[in-house]
Design a protein that fits this description.
Layout: E1 5-9, H1 13-25, E2 29-34, H2 37-47, E3 51-55, H3 64-75, E4 79-83, H4 88-94, E5 101-104, H5 111-143, E6 145-151, E7 156-159, H6 161-167, H7 178-184, H8 187-203, E8 207-214, E9 220-231, E10 237-246, H9 248-270, E11 274-278, E12 284-287, H10 289-295, H11 299-302, H12 314-324, E13 333-341, E14 347-358, E15 364-373, H13 375-422, H14 424-443, H15 450-481, E16 489-492, H16 493-510, E17 514-517, E18 525-528, H17 530-546, E19 553-560, E20 565-572, H18 579-583, H19 604-614, E21 618-624, E22 628-636
Parallel strand pairs: 1-2, 1-3, 3-4, 4-5, 17-19
Antiparallel strand pairs: 6-7, 6-10, 8-9, 9-10, 11-12, 11-15, 13-14, 14-15, 16-18, 19-20, 20-22, 21-22
Helix pairs in contact: 2-3, 13-15, 14-15, 15-19, 16-17, 17-19
């Protein structure tokens, strides 16, 4: 073992030599011998000896006691006083320096060695205690536990620094007493703290509790407190020891987890679909009330059992395991209809959403199944399918009947049109003969009486009306039979309008109609059949004159729809039409306001519409009762 290094501070040379000789004989290393207090302080700071042999009556401005005080304060080196005096006053004065020993001259053999060894051993114990205290303080700073001691006999209470820090206090601010501590305990927890401490003090019981503290800044903290009693040889409790650890963060996390758990439980139970959670081995670990109600089991009957008890078929259970309960499977979510079985044996189809529950590392923690009984839906779907098949059959049958009826109607209409078209000569020949004889009678007007002339006029009027009707019927028949030829060409619409106005001029003048032409000056070139386009506008202008009021207005306007089409409008100031009348306007033989004795066949607009379709023209009408009507035709421009 390595011997200690000693500094000798002695102003008497003989005594110093004696001490040095004894030390070297005992195997110690003498660093130096100094003869004044100032040199002792200087050498102590310079060489840091393991121990100093200090003469109490050392020469210099300071004596040995004063030098020892400085060395203790600055360097904390162990000191053994050497003195030839047995003066109690001097020894009492030296005690505050906490010397490790006293040697009185003359000393006995090996007395110095024993004193030094005891002094060094005491210093070693103090160093270990200091190191242990520092480690304890460091540990408390890291893990934040504080410790306390309460001497019941003396009523002395000691707190570690960590407890003060925990409570947000300093020893200068707060006097550590039992009553002061109780004042800091939360009022709701105070009774519990008093009870456990009282049982510890009276019966020696230990305790391990959690309670709240109200700190000086009024914040609330949770602490974990552990306490135990220390008894004397007679079994009487003399001291209580304990630790306190701040667990506020952990407690708040626990409380939040508890609230989160309650929220999850409430949400879990509020879901109307059955929910079954199973571990990776497919053992049931959690179910909601909807699942208990659906399957008819109690919760403890399901807990820990394999999910196969819920399947109607073991093969289905096995198949689902292969598909979804394989840890290597990539199917994390799936939806399927599975047949389940209740406790009473009833089976039902369940639409099941399966979800693999995984950790953040991707490890499968379990499987969640959300099950909905779709018995009613399945029955409804089956009924709907039956209805659909019946309806499809009925629709197919009705469609076949309608197609047959349409084909029959088309054949009848075609036969009618072909008949009318082929009978045009037979219909016109006798009518022409009647008109011819009527015109001959009209030439002999002077030889006929007034009554006879009136009769001849009625014959001619009726004949011309019948001829117009036959011509339009035959015209319509030709269109419907597909025998009317259309020759599309570039047409100057201004020319069409001018020819129409020439033909209608007598009728227009006869009713004193004012004509406003806002179209002719544009000279639109149209892609159309000239004769058929003229026929369309003759019909529209004729109607605008016939159904106009006396001294009314006939207005022609135009509006470009886009770069390729133009809308030509023919507007009158007549009585106008209702929506119901407009809906019937293009029906064949539909004569509106026939009671007003306005001449017409009732098929002019029908022919107009058909001619428009043959030339890909848009035709329509807008009308306001009491204000008049506007018929419009959309034409294709030729640029």
């Amino acid at each position: 073992m390595k011997k200690a290094k000693i500094l000798i501070a002695e102003d008497q040379v003989m005594i110093a030599k004696t001490i040095e000789s004894e030390l070297m004989t005992s195997g110690y290393e003498v660093l130096a011998t100094v003869f004044s207090s100032e040199d002792a302080v200087c050498e102590a700071g310079k060489n840091k000896p393991d121990l100093i042999m200090m003469d109490i009556k050392l020469s210099g401005e300071m004596d040995g006691i004063q030098a020892a005080e400085q060395i203790r304060t600055k360097y904390d080196i162990p000191i053994v006083f050497v003195t030839t005096y047995d003066d109690p006053a001097i020894l009492e004065r030296a005690k505050p320096t906490n010397p490790e020993g006293f040697i009185q001259m003359p000393f006995k053999s090996r007395e110095i060695e024993r004193t030094i060894e005891i002094a060094l051993h005491q210093r070693e114990i103090k160093e270990k205690l200091k190191s242990s205290t520092e480690r304890l303080n460091n540990t408390q700073k890291i893990f934040h536990p504080g410790n306390w001691e309460w001497n019941i006999v003396t009523n002395e209470l000691h707190w570690s620094d960590e407890i003060y820090r925990m409570f947000g206090l300093t020893p200068q601010q707060f006097s550590a007493t039992y009553d002061a501590f109780l004042d800091m305990v939360h009022p709701d927890d105070r009774e519990m703290d008093v009870a456990v401490i009282q049982r510890g003090a009276e019966h020696g019981e230990s305790w391990d509790i959690e309670h709240r503290l109200i700190c000086d800044d009024r914040t609330e903290k949770w602490v974990h407190a552990i306490g135990k009693a220390i008894k004397d040889d007679n079994g009487k409790v003399i001291e209580l020891l304990g630790t306190v650890q701040d667990i506020t963060k952990e407690k708040l996390i626990d409380l939040e987890l508890e609230q989160s758990s309650r929220r999850f439980k409430a949400m879990f139970e509020s879901i109307t679909d059955a929910i079954v959670y199973a571990d990776p081995e497919r053992k049931i670990r959690m179910v909601n009330q909807a699942a208990i109600k659906l399957f008819g089991y109690e919760e403890d009957e399901l807990q820990g059992n394999l999910t196969k008890m819920l399947y109607a078929s073991y093969d289905e259970f096995k198949q689902q395991g292969i598909k979804h309960y394989n840890p290597n499977s990539k199917n994390e979510t799936s939806t399927k209809v599975i047949t389940y079985k209740c406790k009473n044996g009833n089976e039902f189809p369940g639409e099941t959403l399966g979800v693999a529950v995984k950790s953040s590392a991707g490890e499968v923690l379990g499987y969640l199944g959300i099950i909905r009984d779709i018995t009613e839906r399945t029955l409804m779907e089956s009924e709907l399918e039956s209805y659909r098949e019946t309806l499809e059959s009925q629709i197919e049958k009705r469609t076949s009947e309608l197609v047959k009826a349409r084909n029959d109607a088309e054949r009848a209409n075609k036969a009618k049109s072909e008949f009318l078209s082929s009978m045009s000569h037979e219909l016109r020949t006798p009518l022409n003969a009647i008109l011819g004889f009527g015109q001959m009678l009209e030439l002999d007007e002077s030889e006929l009486s007034d009554i006879q002339n009136t009769n001849v006029k009625e014959i001619l009027d009726a004949g011309h009306h019948l001829l117009n009707l036959i011509n339009e019927v035959l015209n319509l028949a030709q269109i419907e039979a597909g025998k009317l030829e259309i020759n599309m060409e570039k047409v100057n619409f201004t020319k069409v309008l001018q020819e129409c106005m020439k033909l209608m001029s007598i009728s227009i003048e006869g009713r004193n109609i004012e004509v406003i032409d806002n179209v002719s000056d544009h000279h639109y070139f149209i892609n159309a059949d000239f004769m058929r386009l003229k026929q369309i506008f003759l019909n529209l202008i004729s109607n605008a004159v016939k159904y106009n009021k006396e001294s009314g207005r006939l207005i022609f306007d135009s509006r470009l729809i886009n770069n390729h089409r133009v809308r030509i409008c023919v507007t009158d100031t007549g009585a106008g039409l209702t929506e119901e009348e407009v809906s019937r306007l293009f029906n064949p033989f539909e004569r509106l306001n026939a009671e007003e004795n306005i001449e017409g066949t009732g098929i002019g607009l029908t022919i107009t519409k058909h001619l428009g379709q043959l030339m890909d023209l848009g035709i329509g009408v807008e009308s306001t009762p009491g204000k008049g009507s506007t018929f419009w035709v959309e034409l294709e421009l030729v640029l």
